[in-house]
């Protein structure tokens, strides 16, 4: 059977797609990594890595063996953690990916609570767009993701953390409520592609391709968008829990007649996860922080994060 070290080299190659970068990540020389890979392939009786492709990839046999190799790697990880726990040396690290339009209010609000309740766990938090977050989960570069859902993926466990109403920020429209048709003549200010709030705005406001292409901002800064609305007119969407961080005039935030758009904030992790116990604790803290804050809403419309 191939060794844990050889398995780690295989997965490093699949992650970095390059022999030298994989060797650097494993703190070995490239010849050492290549030699151990060949020994592993000789043991299995099949080539696992296609050296001729650019970037490197799995061979046909490698693709068939990958699920079993992944399961063995997971078992090794679980065994290592259990041994550390028996020795009393285990220190968990949870790598969390959060989309920008959630992290800007959720991290400052809950970081201290996370530290108080799970202080023995090191939290490594990064901002990622929704597509990149899902990729990072699958590639195991993060352990837990927080984004707007729902997500259809049989390899992931997802838990609803809370629902969040989405409002229209439109200072030039004086009524407290507006009809969707009123937005047709207003300029939409969008986040960059990859941000789920952009897709939700395009779908809910039924924007055409011409309007989508006029604004080329690359980023997830809602504060900048609200400033552009104030300077240039038009409108943008603002999530409920983001509002206190923007210093906006409440009268400029509009509800839509016969529509209550919401986004569903979910927590995601791989179904087989050695850190599930600590991830569940993090999710429970988030759920408790929002419980009781959501009032009963009428004409609720869940905004999908995927689409045009």
UniProtKB/TrEMBL annotation:
InterPro entries, sorted:
HTH-type_LysR_regulators, LysR_HTH_N, LysR_subst-bd, WH-like_DNA-bd_sf, WH_DNA-bd_sf
What Gene Ontology molecular-function terms does this entry list?
A: DNA binding; DNA-binding transcription factor activity
> What cellular component terms from Gene Ontology apply here?
cytosol
* Key words of the record: DNA-binding, Transcription, Transcription regulation
Checking Pfam families in the record gives: HTH_1, LysR_substrate
Q: Where is the HTH lysR-type domain?
A: 6-59
Entries under PANTHER family matching the protein: HTH-TYPE TRANSCRIPTIONAL REGULATOR YBHD, LYSR-FAMILY TRANSCRIPTIONAL REGULATOR
Per the record, the similarity remark reads: Belongs to the LysR transcriptional regulatory family.
Stated name of the protein: HTH lysR-type domain-containing protein
Q: What organism, scientifically named, is this protein from?
A: Brumimicrobium oceani
High-level lineage: Bacteria, Pseudomonadati, Bacteroidota, Flavobacteriia, Flavobacteriales
């Amino acid at each position: 059977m191939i060794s844990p070290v050889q398995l780690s080299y295989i997965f490093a190659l699949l992650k970095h797609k390059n022999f030298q970068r994989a060797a650097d990540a494993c703190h070995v020389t490239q010849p050492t990594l290549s030699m151990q890979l060949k020994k592993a392939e000789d043991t299995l009786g099949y080539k696992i890595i296609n050296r001729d492709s650019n970037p490197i990839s799995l061979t046909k046999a490698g693709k068939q063996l990958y699920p079993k190799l992944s399961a063995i790697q997971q078992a090794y990880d679980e065994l290592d953690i259990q041994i550390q726990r028996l020795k009393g040396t285990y220190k968990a690290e949870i790598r969390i990916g959060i989309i920008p339009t959630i992290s800007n209010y959720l991290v400052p609000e809950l970081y201290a609570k996370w530290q108080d309740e799970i202080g023995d766990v090191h939290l490594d938090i990064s901002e990622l767009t929704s597509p990149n977050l899902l990729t990072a989960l699958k590639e195991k570069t993060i352990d837990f993701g927080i984004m707007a859902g729902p997500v259809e993926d049989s390899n992931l466990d997802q838990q609803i953390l809370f629902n969040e109403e989405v409002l229209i920020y439109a200072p030039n429209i004086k009524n407290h409520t507006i009809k969707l048709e009123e937005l047709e003549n207003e300029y939409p200010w969008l986040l960059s592609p990859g941000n789920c709030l952009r897709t939700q705005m395009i779908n809910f406001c039924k924007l055409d391709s011409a309007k989508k292409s006029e604004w080329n901002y690359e980023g997830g800064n809602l504060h900048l968008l609200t400033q552009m609305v104030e300077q240039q007119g038009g409108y943008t969407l603002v999530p409920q829990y983001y509002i206190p961080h923007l210093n906006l005039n409440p009268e400029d935030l509009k509800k839509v007649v016969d529509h209550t758009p919401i986004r569903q904030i979910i927590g995601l992790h791989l179904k087989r996860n050695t850190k599930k116990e600590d991830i569940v604790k993090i999710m429970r803290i988030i759920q408790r922080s929002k419980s009781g804050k959501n009032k009963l809403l009428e004409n609720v419309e869940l905004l999908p994060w995927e689409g045009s």
